[in-house]
Design brief:
- There is one protein chain.
- It is built from nine helices and nine strands.
- The protein has a domain at about 40-250: 2-enoyl-CoA Hydratase, Chain A, domain 1 (Alpha-Beta Complex), CATH 3.90.226.10.
- The protein has helices at about 1-25, 30-40, 75-85, 105-115, 135-140, 165-185, 190-200, 215-220, 230-305; strands at about 40-45, 50-60, 70-75, 95-105, 120-130, 145, 150-155, 210-215, 225.
- The protein is an alpha/beta fold.
- Strands 1, 2, 3, 4, 5, 6 and 9 form a seven-stranded mixed beta sheet that branches. Strands 7-8 form a two-stranded antiparallel ribbon.
- It is about 60% helix and about 15% strand.
- The longest helix has about 80 residues, at about 230-305.
- Strand 5, helix 5 and strand 6 form a beta-alpha-beta unit.
Length: about 300
């Protein structure tokens, strides 16, 4: 027992030493460098507009932890970042850089749905590869770019581990593929039928089913919007930011104009009501005055009769 306790203490001491080493490694670094090391992303504040750069690299890690030697993008880290970016009033736009081999389908699709539902301007750039579930992630932005040397692999849904050989399993695969096909067709210029053809192609890959598209082919198929590099993506993101700001200013001006018109109308209505009330009061006074004079003449006539 003492030996086991000593081993545990040694392990605890080693963990503490590793934490201290990591803290020492980040000491003396600026905030941007620390942000890159800790999250793999960066907020760029020295450009024309304040934008956040989110990287999706390696394999998208989902419900199961991948081996430590794998480069991964953890969806439980990415999702809170996206929410924080959307809610941060200082951040004006989001640039998504992709070089991924794919990964967990549900985790990747969840991230893609979040990106597609953002109000802030978003632009994606595929470098190296945007394979498998990386395809929905790449097209989830308002505008997607790909460099000419990058490739995108489109293939059917796969599953690792034990698979039950029953019709229900194939039905489950079909439903999952339909979700992906629907998202891709709704967020790009490729039809669902054409995307499924590329997915089920048997004449291109030796050991698999599917299609590999380079940058130009991905644009030609309507999967990606434009060929371009980093400067093109940032330039377009700036344009989206400025266009959205102009639209918001116009909406605010229209809203203020409508508000002013509403205030003026309310004032006019109040003035009309006050005038109507004044006219009624004047009429009432006239009626009362008329009645009073009539009563006065009547009393005067009665008084004369009594005297006579």
């Amino acid at each position: 027992m003492p030996d086991k306790q000593k081993a545990k203490n040694d392990i605890g001491e080693n963990d503490d030493d590793q934490d201290d080493e990591e803290d020492n490694d980040t000491e003396g670094l600026n905030n941007q460098t620390k942000q890159i090391i800790e999250t793999g992303s960066i907020t760029m504040a020295k450009g024309k507009h304040l934008i956040h750069c989110l990287t999706i690299i390696g394999q998208v890690e989902g419900h199961f932890i991948l081996p430590p030697q794998n480069k991964t993008t953890k969806y439980e880290h990415v999702i809170p970042q996206i929410v924080a970016i959307e809610e941060d009033p200082d951040i004006e736009g989001l640039l998504i850089i992709l070089n991924t081999v794919g990964g967990d389908v549900e985790a990747g699709l969840a991230i893609a749905e979040l990106l597609a539902g953002m109000k802030k301007p978003t632009v994606s750039l595929v470098l190296g590869g945007g394979h498998s579930i990386g395809v929905p992630l790449a097209i989830s932005a308002r505008r997607s770019f790909i460099v000419s040397t990058a490739t995108m692999t489109i293939h059917p849904v796969r599953m690792n581990g034990i698979v039950v050989g029953v019709p229900q399993t194939l039905s489950y695969f079909d439903k999952m593929q339909d979700r992906i096909i629907k998202f891709v067709s709704e967020n790009s210029h490729i039809s669902a039928k054409r995307f499924k053809q590329l997915m089920m192609n048997t004449g291109e890959l030796v050991m698999d089913v599917g299609t590999v598209l380079d940058g130009a082919a991905a644009v030609k198929e309507g999967l990606i919007d434009s060929l371009g590099g980093l400067s093109d993506a940032i330039k377009y993101l700036y344009q989206l930011i400025e266009t959205q700001k102009a639209e918001e200013n116009n909406e605010n001006n229209v809203s203020n104009k409508n508000k002013d018109e509403s205030v003026i109308k309310d004032r006019c209505d109040k003035t009309e009501k006050a005038e109507e009330k004044t006219e009624k009061n004047v009429e009432n006074i006239r009626c009362d005055d008329k009645k009073s004079r009539h009563l006065h003449h009547k009393n005067k006539a009665i008084s004369r009769k009594k005297r006579a």
